[in-house]
Automatic annotation (TrEMBL):
It holds the Pfam family HTH_DNAJC9. It comes from the Eukaryota. Residues 236-262 are annotated as: Disordered. SUPFAM superfamilies: Chaperone J-domain (SSF46565). Residues 6-68 form the J domain. GO terms for cellular component: cytoplasm; nucleolus; nucleoplasm; nucleus. GO terms for biological process: protein folding. It comes from Trypanosoma brucei brucei (strain 927/4 GUTat10.1). This is Chaperone protein DNAJ, putative. The lineage of its organism: Eukaryota, Discoba, Euglenozoa, Kinetoplastea, Metakinetoplastina. InterPro entries: DnaJ_domain, DnaJ_domain_CS, HTH_DNAJC9, J_dom_sf, J_domain-containing_protein. Gene3D superfamilies: DnaJ domain. One of its GO terms (molecular function) is heat shock protein binding.
Length: 262
């Protein structure tokens, strides 16, 4: 299939771009349009991934440069594909992104930015801020090791929150919490009649959306409990203080006055 739009134009590159240029620009654009960060960017993310899959392969790139034909799975035959095939293709693109993103300069910059935003709270970074392959249990430890190396190199300054949340015990708690959230999300999808065994962007995005809602609910519940515990206690204390003051005023008013000598 002859592409209507040049793959080089999709990535904003010239035809003489080096392999390093292609990978660097792909990672930057894929981050911008990654479905986990930009729910409206799925179509653009796929377009970027398709361009990268051809231009990053030396043989496919030579074929494309010579003929203008986009080979293989990147040819954009969307109308001919079933929903499950499109989902599987998107999942492949997402995993392709993680394969180039993990350990990259872009990931390091992301981690530094998120570390500062979260003041070093590793649990918050993992659950709310960082992009990583949720299908790999060892990803949490990989990111923990990455932060440690950045602190050791002086790219980041350790904080009290980091010291507390970066212990082995704290990491294992994070991993257990994430496993429970994934399990609850899968059970919710099953109850809704949605297949959690299908592979693809649809299932992953549904799963992530439910996990996010669970986290938001837990946060809201925690705030509600704190409010009930402390605000209510404060109100009760103020009410008691008010009653005591009123009682003292009443007692003072009703007490017999001493006669003054003339």
């Amino acid at each position: 299939m002859v592409s209507k739009k040049s793959l080089y134009d999709v990535l904003g590159l010239s035809r003489d771009a080096t392999a390093a240029d292609i990978t660097r620009v792909y990672r930057r654009l894929a981050l911008q349009y990654h479905p986990d960060r930009n729910p409206e960017g799925a179509a653009k993310f796929k377009e970027i991934s398709n361009a990268y899959s051809v231009l990053s392969d030396e043989k496919d790139r030579r074929t494309y440069d010579a003929t203008g034909i986009v080979p293989g799975a990147a040819s954009g035959r969307g109308d001919e594909m079933s929903e499950s095939q499109r989902s599987a293709e998107m999942q492949q693109r997402v995993h392709q992104f993680y394969a180039t993103y993990a350990g990259s300069h872009e990931e390091e910059e992301d981690v530094i930015e998120r570390f500062k935003k979260c003041k070093g709270n590793f649990g918050r970074m993992i659950r709310e801020e960082l992009l990583f392959d949720n299908g790999k249990v060892e990803e949490v430890k990989r990111l923990q090791d990455l932060v440690r190396s950045l602190v050791k190199r002086g790219s980041l300054e350790s904080t009290e929150a980091w010291e507390i949340t970066s212990t082995e015990a704290a990491r294992k708690r994070i991993e257990r919490a994430m496993a429970k959230e994934r399990k609850r999300a899968v059970e919710t999808l099953d109850a809704m009649g949605l297949s959690t065994k299908k592979s693809g962007a649809g299932s992953m995005q549904e799963l992530q959306a439910i996990i996010s809602r669970n986290q938001e609910k837990q946060w809201a519940d925690m705030l509600g409990n704190l409010e009930e515990k402390y605000v209510k206690r404060k109100n009760v204390a103020e009410e008691h203080a008010g009653k005591k003051k009123k009682r003292e005023q009443q007692e003072s008013a009703s007490a017999p006055r001493k006669k003054t000598k003339k």
